[in-house]
Every structure is written in C-alpha cells, then in structure tokens.
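Cont'd.
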Amino acid sequence: MTLTVDGVFKRFGRYPALTGVSLEARDGEFLTLLGPSGSGKTTLLRVLAGLDKPDQGRVFLDGTDFLALSARERRVGLVFQQYALFRHMTVARNIAFGLEVRPTRARPSRAAIRARVEELLALARIEGLGGRYPAQLSGGQRQRVAVARALAVEPRLLLLDEPFGALDTKVRKELRGELRRIHDATGVTTILVTHDQEEAMALADRVVLMNQGRIEQIGAPHELDAAPASPFVFEFLGECNRLPCELAGGVARFEGFAAPALGDANLAGQGVALFRPSDARLDAGVNGDGLPVRVIAVHGRGAVRAVECQALSGHRLTAELPDHLAIRFEPGQRARLTARRVMVDITRGASSKIAMPTQARERA
Amino acid sequence: MIGALPRRPVSGSGPIILLTVALVWLALVIGAPMATVFAQAFAKGADAFLDAFKDPDAWAAIRLTLLMAAIAVPVNAAFGLAAAWSLAKFDFKGKSLLLTLIDLPLSMSPVVSGLVWVLLFGARGWFGPLLEAGGVKIVFAVPGIVLGTILVTVPLIARELIPLMAAQGTDEELAATTLGAGGWTVLRRVTLPNVRWALLHGVLLCNARAMGEFGAVSVLSGHIRGLTETLPLHVEAVYNEYDFVGAFACASLLAGLAIVTLVAKTALERAGRVAAIKGSAA
Amino acid sequence: MPGFRLAFGFTLLYVSLIILLPLAALIARPWEHGLHGFVAAVFAPRTLAALKLSFTAAALAALANVALGLAIAWALTRYEFPFRRTVDALVDLPFALPTAVAGIALASLYGPNGWIGGALANLGLKVAYTPTGVFVALLAVGLPFVVRSVQPVLEDLDAAWEEAARTLGAGPLQIAWRIMAPALAPALLTGFAMAFARGAGEYGSVIFIAGNMPGVSEIAPLVIVGKLEQYDYAGAAAVGGAMLIVSLLVLVAVNAAQVAFSRRGER
C-alpha cells in the first residue's frame, strides 16, 4: 500500500492548520509525524482517517482516491491518545467491534471473530484480559487494547495520535518497543504522531518533521541528525547552544575561533549559530584558540558531564565532556570554548537578545 | 468542553425529522397548555379579565398564597442550611438515612403529604381530640395549609445545598475559625457567600412550589372561600362554577409567576456558572 | 468546627416533626382495623381500579417520555438552532407551573371544545374525561424528569468514541445502538423512575381532565380524598401507604439496576 499525500491544505476558520503538505509512505513503512503543538500533525492524521476534510489536495492509497471514501469506508485503524475504549464493553467486545459492525454479508462467523480476538490479545500480550472492562485496566493495558482494536479490521493504515502521551515514562518506553514489534509482525503501514523527538527518532523508519502546517524535512533519523535541512530542524531535534556569529562561505566565525557550518554554503551574513553541547569543546586557560569563557558549574554524574559556562558577552553555553576531561574544570575557572560544527540561522541576526540555552534551565 | 460532542447546525433529513418531532412534542405538551391559559383568560376581552380581580375572594386567596410562601421559604431555607451544614461539615452515623428522609417528600403524592397532617391533627387524628379541647384548629385552617406546604417543599432547598457544601468541604470554615471567627460569623461571611447561587436557586424553586401547591393544600384546606383558599384552590373553585374566564385570569397570574421563575432560574444558573469558573480560577 | 450541636439539633428536630411524625402516622394508621381492614381498603374494587389507573397511566406516560425526552435532550445537546436556549428553559416549565393551572389548561385544551379536543372529536376520539386524559396529563408532568436526567450524560459523551467507531466501520445507527444507548441507559432508567413516581401521585394536573368516575377514570389520590371526606382515616392511610410503597420500590429497583450498570462501566 503506497500512500501518497499531495498538496493538502486545511484551515479552521482563519487558522491555517496545513499548508501544502505532500509526502509518500511506502508499503509497511513506519513513519512518525513529529513537531511542536500547532504544527498540523494531528490535523494531517485526522485527514488521513477521514475525520476531517481538507480544503485542497489529494490523497491516494495504492491509486484509489482516498478522499472520496468516508471514514467508515477507509479501513484505517486509529488509536487515540485517550484510548477512546468503549466503557460499557469488555476488552473482547471492544476488539471485536470493528468485525461485529460489518454488514451481514461481510461479517465473519462468531467463531472466526472469537479466534481473531484471541489472536490479537496474544499479539498485544494481553491474553486473559478479554473479559475485563476498560475501567479495570491500567493505562498501558488500555493502550494495548486500543491498538488491538484498531488492528482487528486488518487496516490498510494504522494511525496513532500521541498514543503514549497519557502514560508514565517507564510504561511509555515499554509500549514503544511493543508497538514496533507489533508493526514488524503485521507489516502494516504505520503513521505515529508525537511531539517527543526521542520517541519519533527511536521508532521511525522515516521521520516527517512538521512546523506551522508545513513539512520541514522528511528523512531517516540519522539523516536528520547528519544533515538537518533548516535551523528549525536542528533546534527541534536536540538541545542547542546559541551564539552570534558571522557566516561566509560555509564557515561561521566567532570571537576567537571558526567552525564549519551545516546547510547552504551560499548563505552569508550575521546570524545566530546553533550547536549541540556534545559538539562543544573546552580547553583550560586563556592562551590559544577559542571563545573566552568562565566556568559556572559542572553538572551530572556518570560517563558524561555538562559543564556550564558564561562568555564575556553574557551568553550561557554548555559543553558536554567525558568525565575524565570534565573533572579538570572548576567553577570560576577561565577556559576557552570551541565548537566542532554549527548550524547558522541567518534570519535571526546577530543582535538577537541573549537567549538562555534550554538545558541550563532544565538542569538547574 | 474537551472531548465533548460538538454541537452541529441542523442538516440532513435525519436531524431535521428529529428536531421537528422534538419541537412539535414540546409545543403540544408544554406550549399549548400555556397558550391556552392566556388565551382563555382574555377570551372575553381585557375587561372580563380584570373583573376576575374585583372579587375579594381572589385577593384573599392571593394574600394567603403569599403568606404560605413567606413562611415556607425561610423556614425551609433555614432547615436546608442546617441540614447541609450538619451533613457536609461533620461526621456522624446515619447520614444516608437522613438524606433518604429528606428526599422522601419527593416520592410522596401531594395528596399524601396533606393526608399525613390530617392523620395527626384532623378530627379523628391522633392529636385531634387534644386540639379540639384546646380550641386549636389546624386542619381546615391556615396552620394546616402551612404544614402541608412546608412538607411538600422541604427537600427543595436542602437538595441544592447539600451536595454543594459537601463538595466545598470545611477548609475555608476551619481557616476562619483559626482566625478567631465565631460560628455565626463563619456562616455569614464564609459559608453563605460560597453557596449563594445554589441557595437562591433553591429559594426560587421552593417559592414556586409553595405558591403553586394544590394537592396537599386541597386536602388540608376546607375550601372556605375567602379564608382558607390559596390561589390555586381559588382557581379550582371558580373553574368548577364554570366561570372559565375568571379561573383562567387567576391562573394566568400563576402562569406568569412560573415564567418569571423560569427566567430568574436561567439567569441564576448562568451567574452560578460564571461564579464557578471564576472560583476555580482563584 | 462550631455550630454542630445547633445545626444538627435543629435538623433532627425539624425532620422529626415535619417528616418522621407524619410518616409514623402514615405507617401506623392503616392497621387500625387490623390486616383485614387494610386489605379491605386497598383491595376494594374501586380502589384497585383507581390504583391500576394511576400506576398504568404513570408507567405508560413515563415510557413515552423516555422516547420523547431522549429525542428532546438529543436535539438540545447536539444541534444548534434558533431559540435553543429558550426551548431549553421551557422544558422545566412543568416543574415551575402550579399543577392546578396545568390541570385546567389541559382540560380546556383537550375538552370537547378545546383546540386539540375539538379536532380529535371530529376524528371520533375522546380524550378528556377518559383514562386517556389521565395519560395525556401525565405526559406533561414527567417530561422534564427524563430530559434533565439524560442531558448531562449526553453532554459528557466522549467525541472520540464516535470517531473511533466510525473508523472501525460503524454506521450512525450502529453507533447509536451499541455505544450511545448503553451510556444513556442508566440516566433513562432514572428519568423513567422519577417520572413514574411523580405521575402516580399527581393530583392537580390530572383531576380536571380525568372523568373522576369511580372504577373507570378515577385516580388513586382522589380515592384518598374521598375516604378522608368520609372520615375513613385508616382507609385513606392504607391507600396512601400503598402508593408510597410502590413508588419507593420502583426507586429502589432502579437504584439497584444502576449500581449493576456502574460496576462495569464507570471509573
């Protein structure tokens, strides 16, 4: 089943939720739609499910005009963040629902339905819970039922809308693995919406990064890491330091050092450079290359530590160093910071306000 | 409301049929009788309408009705507050029994609510001979009517206050107490403001019922024109004499009261919702 | 916390005087002529006919109200139409309107010269002064109970359920039957019970439109009034007590049914 989305637009009143979204999903692929709130990812999912109609654009599944079908006719499995399990039915009846509502001609026999329910209970690893009611289950169990219910109708597409959002971290990680396993076992084309970049990168064959109704980049997780298409992508996929610089010919110049810049080599001008703490390097003392900084604190424990520093200009920066290097630094000490590679955002200009790197606040 | 079913404009044959059925039904069952009241009251013109109120018995009935409300409402409001205070702020055994008893009048036919007082204070009632010896008349006199009206309206204010005060808990009252406030002060300055919309709502319903009560009052009244007739009884009496315009004229007064009650109720509910939103934002 | 003794004391005193004392009389007095007297009062043919009429009309009216009340609650919660708020407020009118006013209005409306009664008479149908009249009057009385019982449940239904069902292939009727109905059943049951209890005991709305003919169109509360007029206190108490017991039994049964429902549905 190849899914083709072509030029989809959708507004709610004056609010543009999707502006010209196009993508393709190959048969059996696991795609994640990743992005901040308001990026349009849930809207796109609902358009695929048939719950919302786009204003413009086409959607094809294996050549069939998908938009011409109603939600009922599409045979798409949808898993909601709040599960939407039918409260008054047992787990088994929930799972069997999609099969029981089929018109008499297309409906499998009672025995066949029961067998399929058992099959799905086993697949979702909730055997024995068939007779319980949703109110009697934990969050993780309910989500498994929701997935099983969606799979019962052998959908052509499995769509999940932030399915793990309501669960705590440990259960979330466990279910992530379960979902991937189920996907690999059934081979159904799966699209998962999330705002959690770690989750998106861990699960996906390809990640679709969205922002304000547009697709910023589509690619395998390592591609997005190695070659981010824009500063937005870079910033969204991990913690960043921010430092003003001058960009020319693919090189970003700072006070005291220069670093290669990712992205379009033809861009030039003043901008803000973004770089990962893990791409930062710290050297002791004041002599040599690098931006002069003063060490503020050393955080964390274990193999990797975060060294927080402040430049003379007031910018706060964090360098991630292996333990044996980090212990050389103490608060108040002078040091020099360099970056191995950066991504420069020209649009912000060098005179942007001093922005606190997010990780400084998180670790405080 | 997050996740609530959205409200749609009406489109499609199914919804249109449903809406038509619903509205036609409401018009038949509720709208038509109301319209009849006013239509019949003015059937012979405004003069005939006003004639109904030249009858001194009508005014006696109006006065008695107002008296019933003036007694039943404050008394039941005091009870409602006391019961809600006890149930919500303290722990004791038998709470659900108390709640059941308070709810009981709702399951009783109004005639039974009148009957029970006759069983106690009527000529052959338990206390009948005692009262006769003392020259006190309860049944077939105003006191009886008062008792019947009170019994019928007991749950109305209590049921508004009890769940609300239970939900509000004792935190604020306890805080006030630690700051040195005495019992009445706490009631006046902490509890009452918190329940004022529910209290007003209950008072409104209690008032409407107290003024409009028929079954219980009919049993207890004795139907003495000009003395022991409330307005609803007067309406019945005039109707049974085939003076339809007169009956409906008085009825229209009561119907007008009902409309005012509904309007006030809607306004109160809106104000209560606004207050609840503001309160939860506090 | 101050004030317990005063509040509780007042509450107890009030409840004892206003509710318990009368209730005691109602419980004790039917037996003044022994079991025999009770049975004679309640099972006399005239009384039985009246009880049957009151309960049957109340049950039928409550059933009709379940269907129509649901339709009205659905229309009010799911759709937007002009004057929706006014219509919503009007549903409560039977709560606010004095029963005698409703009574004479209904008698006038459905009587031989009324708007509706006249039209029906042309079709050969008679409503006023017949048991049908009782049924019609009780329809108005019970409606708000059902509507107000169902509305909050409808407003609380999760939109995601309907969407989930659609993506699983269910049509609108299937959604209504398999998903909405079980969610609404407890509220409908409560509405039915309350409409029934209120209808069985209703007096003012009914007595003008009923024919009040003993054995045919006489309602139970009227039998009680009749017995009081004859100073048959025990008999009146017997009938009143019987009515109260039936209403209470219905309420208890409905409560039990709801507990059974909620054990599996609600968290």
